[in-house]
Protein: F-box domain
Amino acid sequence: MIMNDLPLHLLDEILFRLEPKSMAMMRCTNKSFKSNLTDPRFGPQYPSWVRPNLISLSTSDISLVFCKPLVSSCDSVSLEFRAGLIKDRCYIFGSCSGLLLIYIGHLFVANPLTKKFRILNHSGSKLLPHIVGGVEKHDPYDPNDPLVRRTERAMCVGFVVDPSRTTKRFKIVCILEMETKYRFEISDGDSWRLSKTTLTTSSKSGLKTRIKPVYVDDNLHWLRNDWSLIAFNPETEQARLIPCSFHPTPDTKVLFAAKDKINPMTLISGTIKEISIYTLLGNHKWALERQIKNVSMEKTRFKYWHVVAYDGKCLVVLENNVEADSWRVLGGVECWSEDFYMFTPSYFSIEEDEQTKVIVASDDQHISYLTTIMEVIDPTSQRDLTKRTNPSFFTGTYGSGHFRCYQF
Structure:
């Protein structure tokens, strides 16, 4: 066979791209593949390449990035919680197909697994310069602070990748709010333009802050304060309002997420007593799917409690109560943040047109910052990056918490 003649490093790269089911089938193909796949590298290390990771970002005038594999102590994968300190403000705008859309002085599309990245020119955008623009005042605990308001507006940016296409394209979509009217700004990485599509609603309702858009059924979906949805298809550039109703209590904490192909749109609402999971039905109603008893905690501690991730298979919360209960403990984190991102590694490549390539100095410090972040997120990295951070940054008002996971 031709594959038998491949250099070992190329064969490894091909085999590491396989899903577990395909890998099992390859073991039965011939003795050579079976021998390669019994290598320890395809044992405890392999699952960490394909399982999702939880990325946490805390940022003011400096940024602290954490990465945690979503595995429990019963798994053979390392539970190391890697961290990296960046002496600049960092924004993660989205994660899709193993790529990150991230801003650190420049706008990057990066693959932490391959360490490949592309610098994008964002000067043509109407929204991004406003979000990432510098301000002199930046108190992360002051809700009226300009930087906090800008950080909250990061959810206006959507990032989608379609790995099924041979062109391997990605698109960035920024939603622009104008009272009851919405416009959409689109980029494929080379240029920015306003879509001809305009959506006008009958009622004024802003987008929910810190609630990232969800990409399902070829559409980006933004959640509004009245619980309706704005849907936009980056390919057809069609937009529509999905009128939904939802009535949570004032102290409810909400996560907007994607579940599966059957019921892709999901709302997770958490109170001190229980967590409710709702799915969006065809009649545009949020239907209760299940309720889970919340972890036991005092009412004063609930303000530190957050639903941070859900993918239909597991639900992850962050809280500072470590009493034993039926939830799995994924490990601790010594920095509070409301910005979490699910990231699943892949070998998805980043293509770049040399004619539109953005040139920066080889010693640009922001490239070094990006490299640090990719090392933090790369599941194959064996470095103890926590030693490179400032220990004092982990203390004081940032506090500490624990991730807990409910397995379905």
DSSP finds seven helices and 24 strands in the chain. Residues 365-377 form the longest helix (13 residues).
